Amino acid sequence: xxxxxxxxxxxxxxxxxxxxxxxxxxxxxxxxxxxxxxxxxxxxxxxxxxxxxxxxxxxxxxxxxxxxxxxxxxxxxxxxxxxxxxxxxxxxxxxxxxxxxxxxxxxxxxxxxxxxxxxxxxxxxxxxxxxxxxxxxxxxxxxxxxxxxxxxxxxxxxxxxxxxxxxxxxxxxxxxxxxxxxxxxxxxxxxxxxxxxxxxxxxxxxxxxxxxxxxxxxxxxxxxxxxxxxxxxxxxxxxxxxxxxxxxxxxxxxxxxxxxxxxxxxxxxxxxxxxxxxxxxxxxxxxxxxxxxxxxxxxxxxxxxxxxxxxxxxxxxxxxxxxxxxxxxxxxxxxxxxxxxxxxxxxx
Length: 348
Hints:
The protein is mostly helical. The protein has helices at 3-16, 22-44, 52-57, 95-107, 112-131, 158-165, 173-188, 192-196, 226-238, 240-243, 266-280, 288-301, 306-313, 318-321, 323-339, and strands at 66-67, 87-88, 91-92, 143-144, 203-204, 209-213, 219-223.
């Protein structure tokens, strides 16, 4: 089996058995195709893949990719029959090859978080091949990358979010749509992919609820505030102007449409957010995801418990939600430093 075919099978596995979202699959496939391109270029170079150990071991960035669990079995703690340069049924099973690939990403000045994601894709891919019996071990399992810097999400203050939602939107179908999207982001804390995936049937106006499909296509029901649903209702009255001849009748239609009458895509929503942020005068870049962070942080500041916030955000692990406690404490420290007369150790 060729590596390209194995990658295609892995994509089907992610879709059918793992039920991963299209966005997650797209990211993993992009990472694996980049790995495939790297191998093809190495194969075409003098010495080919067999010569990569010597070249890669001294290349810039290779020192940033360390291996754990070294043993007498092999230089990287892998079985002797899986030594560098080996293939199993046409699939490279070579830790030095993977190290060289990751080192090339460092040389390209990619962010550590991006490199870590690509490494996660490789681990998952080889783990799948190991489970299917196509390889004898996972060459990516023992590799480590440096820890990523702690990420503290951008959060808007209450005044900033009010400025953002207070922007005057045109009384057009597009303007009403844009207001509804911004209101929903802050009211429900949904992901960008969840917002673009909403259908009309997902809105329960009587109950004040929406149904969203999160990561792994898992559904959850979320409460939505009155201002947000009022904005959605106002938009729906004019939605037909965007739908035009492309739209079909029926409640399974996409909620938010582009100017061409198709389901709006993530990039289209991001452009709307960028435009509204500029109009608000906030003075800093804010992504759609920052509105989700703002939703969670404001709930936490108001006394909501972490478990409830976890459920609303659709996080699998509470530890993912706990990063908002760091944000909240940071905000408290800012207020303390700004307001307390002796915060800086000075005299009153």
